Amino acid sequence: MRRDSGARVGPVQRWSARLALLAGLAAIVVLLVFAGLSSLALLGAGIAGLAVSAASLWWALTLRGIGRPLALALAAAAPLAVLALYAWAELLWVVLVSLALWALGVYVGRATLSRDRSRGGDRDSDTDSDTDTERSGPPELRTAPPRRPFLIMNPRSGGGKVGTFRLKEKAEALGAEVLLLDTAHQQDVGALAERAVEDGADLLGVAGGDGTQALVAGVAAGRGVPFLVIPAGTRNHFALDLGLDREDPSTSLDALTDGVELLVDLGFVGERAFVNNASFGAYAAVVQSPAYRDDKVGTTLRTLPDVLTRRRGPRLSVRAGDTVVDGPQAVLVSNNPYRTDDLAGLGRREVLDSGALGVLGINVDSAGQAAELLAGTHARGLTALTAREVVVDADRPEIDAGVDGESLTLPTPVRCTIRPRALRVRVPRHRPGVPRPKAPMDWRRLWRLALGQESAPVTYTRPR
Asked: Are the C-beta atoms of 132 and 435 separated by less than 8 Å?
């Protein structure tokens, strides 16, 4: 835990906070002055429209046949009807101006608070640069370059990025031994990695998707050798949270000659490692379908109605520490918790070395609960926890699971654990970095900053 002591507010922060407060106040004043008492009706109509749209999306996911297009039409028509109401009342411009001012206030306010948090409290000087990324996370360890690196590459991964970026040729030019997977035959990448270490490899690496990354990462952690991530997959979530360049995977090869090591956690489902997450319930049922790879959208729309309405699939029960979640439709157990305080941050992890699993459980039984869930992360249907061990049980002997995107069937109960700082990840010394998380909006704290008062101390706690 780190506690940042308050300090005097600098002039740039003070005026930024004032601008945010002024924009927020102006949004309210415009609404009240030009709409009067009608402003309450306008606000109510807007909230009702959003609720109807959210409920309609739930119906679109749970209905089949003519019900689905009707639900989608209603989801699109609700906000249009609200805008038409505003236009009929000749107050559309008032609403748009008010929303623009409010958005400006929130944008500037969050940027001000994030700048304050990133500095560990306020300072008298505002001369420091304020960039969108920072070298956050575990400390970097300078170690000698590997002498016998061994890299496994999937030529089909990510639409053929291995060939597009000439990863094999570039890695071999740097002294690495490269094994191209034979995509026509199933190969045990874990066994290939084990054999490479026995033959003297002092670094293991993968150019492929997160599922392959996880299998080899498990071997690297068990053998105590560093692991190199080359983001040649489709989404590359692990590389994102490591701050690697996902646009040009060949830059990750710089770690072979000019790299540092990070000690990060590794999640396990039983004895199988995962670098991102293990999912159970709705998503796992979708990816289990043989048609999923060729028709992701169609398979999802065909599978979700039965899963979300509990007509298909097991009834899950999740125990995380002292908390029990009964009957969730979807469960996500992640290697370190995902952010849930900001829609833009969903899918990102602020740290990879907290020593805790993240748990997200969704339990939605009605359109009203779906609307509440989409309205915010504090909805009753969403459970967010952290724990060192998570047990997923069911009313069946086996359940479907998606482990880093790979489809599995596992015997119940399924035990998920985390091994703190078990994986040595070698990354380039020069890399893009992890995007800086935005601070949550706090109007009271902005008020203190605007008055030039000492900012309140901020405490950061990593779950253990």
From this structure: yes
